[in-house]
Amino acid sequence: MKNVLVPTDFSENSIQALKYAQVLFSSMECNFYLLYVGTLLDTKIDAESFQESDGAPTENTKKKLLDLVKECRKHSTEANHFFFALHEYGFFTSTIKKHIAEQNIDLIVMGTKGASGIKEKILGSNAGDVITKVQCNTLIVPVQVKLSKPREIAFPTDFNIFYSLRILHPMEEMVELGKSKLRVMNALKEGDSLNKEQEKNKEHLLDFLEDTFPGAHSLHTITNQKVKSAIQCFMESREIDMIVMVAKNLNFIQQILFDSIVEQISFHTKVPFFVIHE
Predict the structure, then answer these.
(1) What is the pTM of this model?
(2) What is the CATH architecture of 2-142?
């Protein structure tokens, strides 16, 4: 049984992320925990729910969450998918951590608009906080994602970290879900080469992939381009459906995912990011 936490603010972004997760794990038995984290403003709105406010009724967030869970149960085509409502007032990241422990969460699935949607109420800059501060594998889903299992998965890496089984096994599971191809991608500056430690890490990774996915992976080295633009070009040329990254390699992940001025997701993409924590 896989336990998936889906934070929601009832936006199109978060609903799309939930739909994507249901498609992705259609072949697995899953508990989906839909979490709404309310603010102090929400406590007042919920207390005054369905009272007239400027001529219009205010809707209780608890009721909206329960209605969403009911809709999921009603329309889910998978008999092995179960849905639960979690509603709490507090700070976003600490509430996420609490429910990861209480529900034994395996994966967080969050929606975002990407570069144009970083100001979303819940799922914009908070996605960056979850990736960097919460020790749990996280799937970031753009609102324009195609609702299908990934066929081509990119793994951009600089080979600066050792790939333990706690990194490799989630990657293996993701590849197997869609019977996907894994494309390992390395961007190098003109004239640069890998050092001994990087070569060792590369060989370890490729040995694992050859044993696990013979014929279903490949290595690509791109030179003379900045990392972010190299990944963008690679994604477009290979029709990539998902990008896998390792949170441990924070310097590398910040080059790709975050704006240099503020820690907000800035990568222009329509494909999900799967961020693995050790």
Answers:
(1) 0.87
(2) 3-Layer(aba) Sandwich (3.40)
